[in-house]
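Final report, closing paragraph on structural work. Over the funding period we assembled a curated collection of sequence-structure pairs, and we close with a single example.
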Amino acid sequence: MSKQKSITPISSIDSLNSLLQRNSLQYLLESELPSAKAYLKFTGPFSGGAVVWNACIQTIDEYSRDHEIAKDPKQFIDIHTEGDAYFVEIGLNVPIIDKGTVERTILMIRNYKRLHLGRHEYGARSKTL
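Its predicted structure, as stored:
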C-alpha cells in the first residue's frame, strides 16, 4: 500500500465488529464517495482465519499518478502486513469509486479463495472499461 496511509490500521476483529454493529454498518468507510480513491475497513477470511482488512480501493488512473503503469494496465490486489494489521490495496479499471464498487470489491475479496501476500494482477484495462 502507498506510504501515504491516511487511515489508522485496526487489527482486532472484535473491535471492528463491535463498531460496525453499534453503527449498523457492513464496513467502515473512511473516505467520501464518489472518489478516485477510498479507504475503508472490513472483515474477511485470509489463510484459514478471519482478519480485518485495512483497504484502499482506487482507480487505475489514480494509481498511475504515483506509479508507472503499462500501456494497457491490469487490475490488481496487493496484500501486505505490518505487525498484526492486514492491508489490501486494490486498483480497478473503473472511472470512479462509488458505493456499488466498494460493496462489489468487498465481496470479491471475501470470496477470492487464493488470496496470498503480495500482488495479484488480473484482466487487461481494454477488456474491463
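The radius of gyration is 14 Å. The longest strand covers residues 49-59. We thank the funder for supporting this effort.
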